[in-house]
Write the structure tokens for this entry.
Amino acid sequence: MNRNRNIVLKIGCFLILALVMLSCTDTNLSPVFYAVEHEKSLVDDRGFPDDAVVQRIIQNVPGGNYFAAAGTLYTRAPGGGTWSPISAPVTGALCTNVEIFSGQLVAAFLLPDDTGALYYSTVSPISWNPVSGLPAGAQIGLLRNIGTELFVSTLSGGTYNLYDYTNITIPTVTTTNLTATMTTGPISDVALAGTTYWATVGSTLYSSADIFNTFAADSTVSTNGAFDGLFLSSGGTLYLAADGKFYTNPGTGWVASSSITVEGNSVQFTTFVETSGLPGSHVYAGTGGYGYYDTSTLERLPFYTISALYDGAILSMLYDGSGATPVLLLGTYNSGLWRGDWDGANWQWKQE
């Protein structure tokens, strides 16, 4: 595997998450708690590289297998077992993103010649098929399943574009009206709330009721860095990740959280997850190097400091409440994959 291509992957190709703080540490940890933390066994080796860049974690269906895009595409069954690598459709290709759409596994790959390609397969057995409809060789960024639509962002000819698939096996694809040049940054995320589509592009939030004709910049929100993940909660509230804060929109307009800093450093928020079914049903917000926060209480978590986890920006979060023990998975930049097991009151963390 070529060293330069590994470097390209580790900066996320053109994913905005690689542009935020990636190596912040918790310098506020007292020696006593540092010693206590390091006396814990935080490793539960399930075959996942400890220094992996985990771009995305998904689950096939509730109770189904997990899939993680981390250069190699990995999978394992919930509840136990080890992670197994899935062969790429092209020898030497790197998996940069993964999604489930219409019961199919969809994965983005960076090919050995540094061009991109999109493939789909049945979940089991794996048998890759190319997805057509995108510019030849375009690098693939975002993959987002929104109901009956799969959104795919690309970088081709120095321009980012967003495509909308309603079928991938017999491709039905349309180019949206959202494009971005290199100067404004990649398309980070897309969400649908009611009849309005939202998209984050660099430091701009766009919205549209008709993605094939218009996208308008939203001037009611702002960020010093970049906007990142969008997330629609089960209650219909839309969340937006920003630098130093996050926003919520219950359908009546955006409301900013309090400004959040750690030792004077602005906290860049990255992505969200909802732990439906646990007491209180929390929405957590991942950060670029400061763990994650409960969006209701603004409490920084984990409740005990894990420097190895805090050192890695959280790129992806997955909650699985289908088993006897609820599980929260955190995919990080350079700090691998972390699993929290719910003990009835807190998450108990292990590095897989």
Remarks:
- The chain has one domain: 3-351.
